[in-house]
Amino acid sequence: MIIIADCGSTKSDWLLLHGGRDQQLENTVGFSPFFHTTEEIKTILLTELVPKLKPETVKEVYFYGTGVHDEHRAEIVAAAIRAVFPNAKVEVEHDLLAAARATCGRNAGIACILGTGSNSCYYDGEKILDNVPSLGWLLGDEGSGTHLGKALLRAKFYRELPADLDAAFDEAYPEGTDAIKDRVYEKGANAYLASFTRFLGDNIKHTFIQQLVSNCLGEFLDRQPCKYGGYQLVPMHFVGSIAHHFQDILLQCMEARDLKPGVIVRKPIFPLADYHLQSSE
Fold first, then answer.
1. What is the C-alpha separation between 262 and 278, in angstroms, rounded?
2. What's the number of domains the chain is made of?
3. In the chain, what percentage of residues exceed pLDDT 70?
């Protein structure tokens, strides 16, 4: 069995390839080597993934995840996977490479991630040539679910929401603003902030929400992919739930900047499987 994993901050997809096109998709909570130890990751795998398969049959694991910025971070994840799947060859890569392989394939292009966090890279069809640094949810992650959630909460707390949206927000979150502020400063705040994108999606026909989303996505384009040389000459691709759910506004932002739209994929896991299956043929 071959396993391909796409791991984000909130959720991980694990595609089990039993042979050929016999595939089985499983999910676990997300994790990052910035916030989780090897033992914590191992525990997640043992409790949420292992009961759904036979570990001794796993021969290869291709893991792509958030926070895998260097060899040290990669080893935190790799050690956990090796402990759970002792017979497997394990490769751990950054989720940016997953986005590039899933959308660009073997062609040049710009690959972007718009999920709980955000990132981008210029890919030549084989490797990543350039990457504007992602500063994480505290300093960056423009256009991400976390960024959108922060923008909504700022509008709420600064009394900038129109009256109808303000009332809808109070109805959607009856716990009140004090409880929300307390929760923001607990562990996992980035995922919590991103959860407010559901409210944005539910009210996307409101012009205030449309402008808020457009501002956030436009800031991402300006600060990240539009910094690469020749950015208007190659397709610009996207993966992630934010790109998928707000793609109409995203495409408008791209058109305003004369960008070449590529593919928008909510889950890169299936194109990644195609990439690896083609590589093995």
1. 21
2. 1
3. 98
